[in-house]
Amino acid sequence: MITRRAALAYFAGASLATIWKDGVMAAEWTVESFEAHIRAFFDDIEAKANAASSTSQIGPLRDQLNREWLGAKPGAFLPPEIFDQLRARLGAVENVLTARFVALRDAVGDTQADERIVIERDGPVTATFFYARHYSNKDQPWDATVAQQTIQLTEERLGIEFPRGLRDLYTLQNGGHTDFYLSSTEKTPPHEFGGSSHADIDDAYDVWFSALPGMDIMPLQSLQTLGSFSDTINFGEVDDAWRSYIPGIDRLIPISSYGSDIWLCLDYRKGSTAPKVVLFDDTKGERSSKNMFAHEAPDFASFFAGLRRHAITIENGLRMRGLRALAEGG
């Protein structure tokens, strides 16, 4: 049943991510109440998309949609048939957003031939890596003392040591959202796509993939092993459970995820320090040790150095970075 606290937050119109943040966990929802909430949210996003008057309004709606769905991690507690229905509805809303974006773009005279995707050539630096605090702890006090204490407690809890670069990020803030989520496996990848003198725009996201699937770094209190996350998911068949085919699953620590399918992990299977960084994508269906991970980096430093973000573009007078609208001066 929903607790009184959850009900008050629900009827006040709080987002599911906010309810999650405040400690009201999935077990306190009924399947019916959660389904009603998320379907109403999907309907609202779809209505706002259809009412949008410029392409600049579509990106924030898509961002809101992703945060609400990903923040809930519904695959961890919904029956498979309900989860599949809601994920299909999510896909339908995403299609509406895309169709509306294209229609609005074409209405102002832009053409597919004019469309371009530009990736910045410079990698991130710690001080400017995040553009916002994580939605789950945006009001949490954070300074060097609190950071070091929380980092130490998390390392002790997980039995690991964070690589220096990640420790520096957590010292700056307790996780957060970033535009530096793209990476490429090519040695000299193109950075501009579209137009007559650049690479084919349809190849852009084959060359550049989302290495940080949640476009974020999880807060320290949210970190647990991939095995622990696996134990909360109903796989249907025992043979489908990750524990059945991922050796050392409790030495993989996710730091970013997309739903319950794609996880960027620190790989401590060969020791408690100096982890590799691996991208586990359960949608790929590869279960051999050779092809289990969609991407691997030898250490966090090289992974971090390889991250890139979209360049800023001007669309209908609004500054955009990918699908994110930038505030003035942002």
Describe the protein's architecture and organization.
36% of the residues lie in helices and 15% in strands. The protein has 330 residues and is an alpha+beta fold. The strands form five sheets. A four-stranded antiparallel sheet has the order 8-9-10-11. Strands 2-3-7 form a three-stranded antiparallel sheet, with no helix packed on it. Helix 3 (31-51) packs antiparallel against helix 4 and helix 6 packs across helix 7 (164-172). The longest helix is centred in the first third of the chain and has 28 residues, at 80-107. The radius of gyration is 20 Å and the shape is globular.
Task: Note the topology.
Elements: H1 4-11, H2 16-21, H3 31-51, H4 58-72, H5 80-107, E1 117-118, E2 130-133, H6 144-158, H7 164-172, E3 176-178, E4 182-183, E5 192-193, H8 204-207, E6 209-210, E7 216-217, H9 226-231, E8 252-258, E9 262-267, E10 276-281, E11 293-297, H10 300-305, E12 312-315, E13 318-321, E14 324-325
Antiparallel strand pairs: 1-5, 2-3, 3-7, 4-6, 8-9, 9-10, 10-11, 12-13, 13-14
Helix pairs in contact: 3-4, 3-5, 4-5, 6-7
